[in-house]
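Is this the right way to post structure tokens for a design question? Let me know if I should format differently. Anyway, here goes:
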């Protein structure tokens, strides 16, 4: 059972041990993700992302730090590894996106990566995700995010 299938009113301690450690961990991760989304929504509502970070202004553009969580399809990934094209594809994508940070890990038993990139505008989300969809048959999630300085700035605007 996936964590997202569990009713939000269920508490972690109430999950029977029959669900297993993985289901309990996924449930806890889902709760943390919901909390992060709520915090981001609050900060966005108060305009924390409306400001251009120092040194980022480009002809009036308002870049937004965005976290991409990419989960690769195992079959497509295995094929790329077998034909030795995975490294080239990753270099091309990373060269295009120029991430501030890139982390590679397992997610739900699949190869995955988390990239932090600057999105020049909302429309750029499509161009950031397409290479993963087309070349790697991956699922892509995008979240506006901030670093500690951005959070301080946003919280400072609250009052």
């Amino acid at each position: 059972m996936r964590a997202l299938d569990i009713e939000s009113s269920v508490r972690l301690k109430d999950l029977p041990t029959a669900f297993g450690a993985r289901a309990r961990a996924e449930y806890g991760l889902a709760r943390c993700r919901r909390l992060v989304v709520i915090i981001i929504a609050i900060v966005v509502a108060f305009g924390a992302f409306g400001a251009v970070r120092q040194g980022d202004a480009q002809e009036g553009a308002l870049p937004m730090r965005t976290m991409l969580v990419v989960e690769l399809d195992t079959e497509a990934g295995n094929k790329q590894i077998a034909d030795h094209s995975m490294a080239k594809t990753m270099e091309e994508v990373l060269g295009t996106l120029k991430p501030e940070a890139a982390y590679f890990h397992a997610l739900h038993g699949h190869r995955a990566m988390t990239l932090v990139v600057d999105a020049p505008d909302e429309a750029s989300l499509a161009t950031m995700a397409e290479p993963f969809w087309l070349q790697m048959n991956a699922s892509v999630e995008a979240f506006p995010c901030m670093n500690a300085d951005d959070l301080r700035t946003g919280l400072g605007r609250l009052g």
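Format looks fine. Someone answered above. Worth noting: The longest helix spans residues 20-45. Strands lie at 64-71, 101-107, 110-119, 139-144.
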